[in-house]
Amino acid sequence: MLIDDRFTAVAARFFTMFRRKSQGGGALSVYLHGEPVLDIWSGWAAPDRRWQADTLALSYSTSKGVAATVANRLIESGVLELDAPVATYWPEFAANGKADITVRDILTHRAGLQRVRGLVPTIDDQLDHDTVAAALAAAAPDPMRLRASGYHAINFGTLVAEVAQRATGRDFRDILRTELAEPLGDNDFWFGVPREHRHRIAQLSPRLGIARIGMDRLIAPFAPVPQLRSARSAVFDGWADLSVGRRPYDAMMPGWNGTFTARSLAKMYGALANDGLAGHRRLFHAETTADIARMPLNSRYDYVLGAAPQFARGYHRAIVGTRLTRRAFGHFGIGGSGGIAIPGDGLSIAFVTNHLGYPVMTLGDHRLPLLAALAQRAARTAAASPATAPRFEQAG
């Protein structure tokens, strides 16, 4: 473990979250000005297994921020153009009135292709990237896309991955390796975990839902309600239970089945918060990170979420403490995991866990926003008092 003296309060709060086996386990990593200042873990990866330094956690929509970072690398290098039509790279995509949909539209959830329910016949089909990509290419977009964003809960990653594959002629997992893992010197970015690494994966629990009512049962009664039809269409029956099983680790679904360490996520967002640099490794030019950080308002309303998350270039505005702030961005995942960059402080925070949310509502919780607020306070205190004690390392 690594704990910088200036961030001991953050570490102390983290450790209180995993005192009992019933609380599962997790990991927290913080980078300041591109250098690690916290790398800690605690709790249980499974009922019979402690969380370790290399434990991986499936992190749901945290995945979208990683997929977006790969896309932004390709944009910076000129392989993709942000405002080019998707059909430039993927000709079949132009079908059914989609010829003018751009790469930017995909990254800001304005492609109108959020519908996954009924898109393909079976769950096996849903787990096959090529089948879903072909169905999306043939689909007609939701006309609401012209008025607002519509969160692509499942399909975002498929769209990003297919555009990247068409533009490069390479498998997305290979692109992930060359555009992210190798530049950062960290291999723990997985969309589909190889069998030789699956012993490292934390076991997720409990089922996703509210008040112990499963996700499918929870949303089924709202099917006739017009205002909720778009939200229901963005997930498929069986998704919630599937996601806590083993089958997602065979698939490549960069919208939700990304499996990471907190360390890998914090290093990535550390570069985004530090003019493109993580230590001596450059991920982006400073101009790119500045453009991402500006994040213009994308939509005042999202017709799937019923909120205004303000998407830009694949990320969304982040909650730090209790506030959605324009000074931080990243991507949260259902259940509590996520990563945040705060460029003004040169700070990144990543948290992964196998214990999904609160006992009453497993869809999300306050752990990452709370830890982010504490880390920001520590970083600002350190900046105001540069003579504070140096970092120390603690083995464990």
Automatic annotation (TrEMBL):
<dbReference type="InterPro" id="IPR001466">
    <property type="entry name" value="Beta-lactam-related"/>
</dbReference>
<dbReference type="InterPro" id="IPR012338">
    <property type="entry name" value="Beta-lactam/transpept-like"/>
</dbReference>
<feature type="domain" description="Beta-lactamase-related">
    <location>
        <begin position="22"/>
        <end position="368"/>
    </location>
</feature>
<dbReference type="InterPro" id="IPR052907">
    <property type="entry name" value="Beta-lactamase/esterase"/>
</dbReference>
<dbReference type="Pfam" id="PF00144">
    <property type="entry name" value="Beta-lactamase"/>
</dbReference>
<protein>
    <submittedName>
        <fullName>Beta-lactamase family protein</fullName>
    </submittedName>
</protein>
